[in-house]
Amino acid sequence: MNPAAYRGRFAPSPTGPMHFGSLVAAVASYADARHQHGEWLVRIEDVDETRRQADAERSILQTLQAFGMQWDGPTVRQRERGALYDRVLAVLVERRLAYRCSCSRRLIASTAMLGSEGAIYPGTCRDHPPAPDTVAAWRMIVGRDTLVVDDRIVGEVVQDLAAEIGDFIIRRSDGFTAYQLAVVVDDQLQGITHVVRGADLLWSTPRQLWLQRQLGYATPSYAHIPLVYAADGHKLSKSDGAHPVRLHDPVRSLREAWHHLGQPEAPNGLDNPADFWAWAIPHWRLDQVPLDRNSTHERPDTL
Length: 303
Ligand code: GLU
Prior knowledge:
Blueprint: E1 7-10, H1 20-35, E2 39-44, H2 56-66, E3 76-77, H3 82-94, E4 98-101, H4 105-111, E5 113-115, E6 118-120, H5 124-127, E7 137-140, E8 146-151, E9 155-160, H6 161-164, E10 168-171, H7 179-189, E11 194-198, H8 205-215, E12 221-225, H9 250-260, H10 273-283
Parallel strand pairs: 1-2, 2-3, 11-12
Antiparallel strand pairs: 4-7, 5-6, 7-10, 8-9
Residues 11-13, 45, 183, 197-198, 201, 302 line the site of glutamic acid (GLU).
């Protein structure tokens, strides 16, 4: 099979029904993919099964359908992919790029320096491995290189992982694969060429680049779109139950999402999602998408 020239994806975590913030992410990745005649996949990011909410997956998929966003191929679910993540972790361990860590959050908080993304892990267990029977996470060793992401919206994002993050968790002590590893494995195995997602993940991208490099994977092109903030300044999240989308009036929600993305106003008379998309796809302009107001120092909260 020839690799796709453009294969994008929408990767919701099923922690609640779709809210306006996740609709914006879906709209941006869908419009960008279809504008470039690309494929668009849906991946359910439920690697952390404890956060999965019954029915959220069904409700998200129904919303996408009701809003006229048709995806290509089967829906992939991270909870069914544990064996793939295990295999990649084993490769990293075998190559001595990962080590076990039993440090508690509290210990790290009391000993580590604080970087823009939280505590910078000081490498304690790299030098003093925990006893073999201790419950432990796995950390990825980072190098001293400066990583540069050339984001299509934000521009150059530069991070020195060793100085700003430290060795980071790729398998949690409760046994769940960490978001950073799962997303890198999935983007590679699904042949994703373009990632369009929320700016809360901007500063996760250098860690993802690092993993891609160590594993010999391709690096997709990235575009981080502005988040939607609630009136109190917090990012909308599904777990808040905040701002659900208007299922009874999809075109209105699509217009609102389009507006949030800085796109030209859609004409009157687009009565259903199919009409909206027939107009919107050729009119999509990524260069009109505004910057997120906090994108330079937002802490990632997706693990
Ligand atoms: N699952 C993440 C979320 O719902 C998105 C991850 C990604 O796009 O890389 O926020």
